[in-house]
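Sample 1 of the test manifest.
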Amino acid sequence: MIHKYSMNGFNIVLDVNSGAVHIVDDIVFDVLDFFDEKSVDEIAALLKDKYSEKEIIDAFNEILELREKELIFTDDIYEEVIPKIEKRAPVVKALCLHIAHDCNLKCKYCFAEEGEYHGKRSLMSLETGKKAIDFLIKASGTRKNLEVDFFGGEPLLNFDVVKGIVEYARSVEKENNKNFRFTITTNGILLDDEIQDYINKNMHNVVLSIDGRKETNDNMRVRAGGQGSYDAIVPKFIKLAESRNQTDYYVRGTFTRNNLDFSKDVIHLADLGFKQISVEPVVADDKESYSLKKEDLPILFEEYEKLALQILKRRKEGKDFNFFHFMIDLTGGPCVTKRLVGCGSGTEYLAVTPEGDLYPCHQFVGMEDFKLGDIEKGVVNLKKREEFENLNVYSKPDCGKCWAKFYCSGGCAANSFNNNGDLVTPYEIGCELQRKRIECAIMLKAAEE
Amino acid sequence: MKHIKTLNTKLLKNTVLNGGCGECQTSTVANQSCENK
């Protein structure tokens, strides 16, 4: 299977099964339409109005040469890897700790429903946090690198417990031959110099929530009284990003139907000086007025392309920035195993509620059917875990024919469930946007050459 | 080659046997890199 497209003057051909990416001229681009089904003479006859016979034969032979090198029209040989993955002993290597099911903002699109996740306000105790670390060490088997994300709600509402958990994990990691990496996500309202200093010393990555332009942000990210949060957080975020030398953080926004022109929000964040930016599509019930609709896709595609061109322009001007969803590593990307199974939700990655209950990921928290167990007993709902263990590119019927399957790994289980009521039917709008982002990301790589 | 330029030669099939160590950061994986280099 190949995928070919033109963008910004580049003809790009992706060989899906090998992962090879080629930039080709117009002749090869056109010959590829017929290469698999016609002889070189037939192709020459079909394209004789555009190219000479010699040009077509040359192009045809170069494609043949690529095929002999197994760089185009290669076979999908990866399904045989699945039994090997399924035989692996189940391990947990990352936890999303819901430090606070409470929040000091009332963002209108929050899947956590003002931080409460369909439940009541609550804060994780230090005792529960320590037990979560013990559970992770025990459940991680021989894995050395373990990750803990402090999430909410708003984690800074329970920051003493965050510090206590980090201190405890550091005190036990060496004796257990583990290496903890901590991350934290915050809305910034409570951020101050002391907290910034602590985050810089202890957090491998920090995610700072802001949606972009003041009017965009303050339309959705509001306090209890309805006031926007932009003016309070921007100076703090700028200071924190600078204090981390513009690395190991993301300003992270959400775009909705209210700001389909989201490329302007990304550029606004770049103009504020941020170098690590992620602005992502909202995950929302289709009934919400701000949820993305199919008819919005052409506008969103155009916005992603606009953004890619802006990034190229700014590169030349020395005002470059990273856009998370355009990052793609063509020479050292993830291995096949990782690409087949994706984020590891429900298996390697679990969410822990303030009470210590385990869920497949933060987006399933509060859905009782998805409760997997707790940090004392471990994973006891083995039937539900098995559903997640069986999720991969090949277990999702719609993914087999998709050219992007080895980049998106079959998409997000929570998005599938929230939109289609099962774990294996991908969220179509998410798929469309993902494919567009990959096309833009590869084009940016082509432009580097 | 006159008509084709290939951007990458590290191919997926080469990671079937030597991949899967599981030590890389939990993520889509599209935007990630292998950490086992």
